[in-house]
Amino acid sequence: MDQIEELMQKATELGKSIAETKIYKDFKRAEYDLLQNDEARKLVESLHKMKNEQRGKQMAGIEVTSEEKDQLTELEQKCIRNKQVLTSNNANSRFQEFMEEITSCIRKGIQSVDN
After folding, report:
1. Which InterPro entries does its entry note (predicted)?
2. Tens of pLDDT along 1-50?
3. Is 95 exposed, middle or buried (0-12, 13-18, 19+ CB in 10 A)?
4. Distance between alpha carbon 44 and the CA centroid of its chain, in Å?
5. Using one digit for the tens of pLDDT, what is the confidence trace for 97-112?
């Protein structure tokens, strides 16, 4: 097995190990529960749609009005008040932080060889 194949095998093993962690399992469970809750799912879909619309306007050089900004803030608050959305968001945040830590460790490993 050459070096690249070995590296890919290790990456696959890392992925499997990540999938076995409580952080990942909590994230997947919260994601599943969110999708099963119509109200929570619709809130998140609306939030993503509104954010994308506002981002698209900004990229096109169109100013987002204060009313539109307020609508987004109001929808974000509504999402946070929904227990399922909040649970999913927290689990997602924990998982993203975990993945950033893993990436940081990989970076440190690379840097240790470069030095």
Report:
1. Com_YlbF, YheA/YmcA-like_dom_sf
2. 799 999 999 999 999 999 999 999 999 999 999 999 999 999 999 999 99
3. buried
4. 13
5. 999 999 999 999 999 9
Domain that holds residue 84: 3-112
Coil, strand or helix at 2: coil
The count of other CB atoms within 10 Å of the CB of residue 31 is 14
Tell me the C-alpha to C-alpha distance, in Å, between residue 113 and each of 2, 61, 106, 109. 19, 44, 11, 7
Q: Which residue has the tokens 């997947």?
A: 28
Measured in residues, the chain has a length of 115
- Give the distance, in angstroms, between the CA of residue 93 and the centroid of all CA atoms in the same chain: 6
Tokens 């194949």 identify what position? 5
User: What CATH number did the domain enclosing 21 receive?
Assistant: 1.20.1500.10
Structural domains counted in the chain: 1
8 Å CB contact between 84 and 37 = yes
